[in-house]
Amino acid sequence: MHPDCERILLTEEEIRLKVKELAAQISRDYADKELLVVGILKGSVIFLADLVRNISVPTCFDFMAVSSYGASSKSSGVVRILKDLDQGIEGRHVLIVEDIVDTGLTLSYLVENLKTRGPASLKICTLLDKPSRRVVDVDVHYNGFKIEDHFVVGYGLDFNGLYRNQPCIMVLKPDVYKGGKKHDSARAGIGNRP
Ligand code: 5GP
Ligand code: MG
Ligand code: MG
Fold first, then answer.
1. 139 is known as an active-site residue
2. pTM to 2 decimals?
């Protein structure tokens, strides 16, 4: 385990099995359809890569990057699109893929935004969900794991851009994100970045 983390929350094997389960369910639900998977950069990248390789229906993917306004690490609910989709989604079956739903503010904004573009359907798939932190309701159709309110990293999830390449999901030691480790926090500021 990475020394900046206090424990492993989800092992590689647990994640692998869950991703297969989600992909099987998605493949059944979209059996006669073509799917457009929309990954939210950058946290969803590892999850999306594993998920789409287990989906059996015709699948395209594209990406969006978003950021919350303001300097606070707390989500403000006002979301700025840093990178939009490369293609239109009118009449298409869109599945948003996220790493984690926390307050729900990012996803509720994205859903409202993408709805205005006239997709045939719009659903959400997230690997992790922290329901205790929810501020706005979001309808999550596919959810890997419900977790307690810990700050987790690995398998795409970062702190200051680091740890995304770790293969399992771990609880970060509080002294790391509270600035105990100056090399990380001083270099890149807040942790909640796209
Ligand atoms: P929200 O649902 O609050 O709008 O924001 C969700 C985003 O906050 C996620 O996509 C992720 O970037 C970040 N986030 C929330 N909780 C965690 C966590 O425990 N670990 C990491 N690395 N990012 C988190
Ligand atoms: Mg994310
Ligand atoms: Mg982040």
1. no
2. 0.91
12 φ, ψ (degrees, to nearest 5): -55, -40
Q: Which atom of ligand 1 is nearest to the CA of 79?
A: 4
Q: Look up the CATH number of the domain holding residue 142.
A: 3.40.50.2020
Count of Cβ atoms closer than 10 Å to residue 22 Cβ: 22
Lowest-confidence segment of 110-124, 141-155, 178-192 by average pLDDT = 178-192
User: Considering the domain boundaries, does residue 38 fall inside one?
Assistant: yes
Rounded to whole angstroms, the Cα distance separating 154 from 119 reads: 32
**How many whole angstroms separate alpha carbon 100 and alpha carbon 152?**
10
Residue 21 CA to residue 110 CA, distance in Å, equals 25
- The protein residues having their C-beta less than 5 angstroms from ligand 2 (an ion) are 40, 43, 99
Residue 181 falls inside a structural domain: no
- The DSSP string of 84-125 is --SS--TT-EEEEEEEEESSSHHHHHHHHHHHTT--SEEEEE
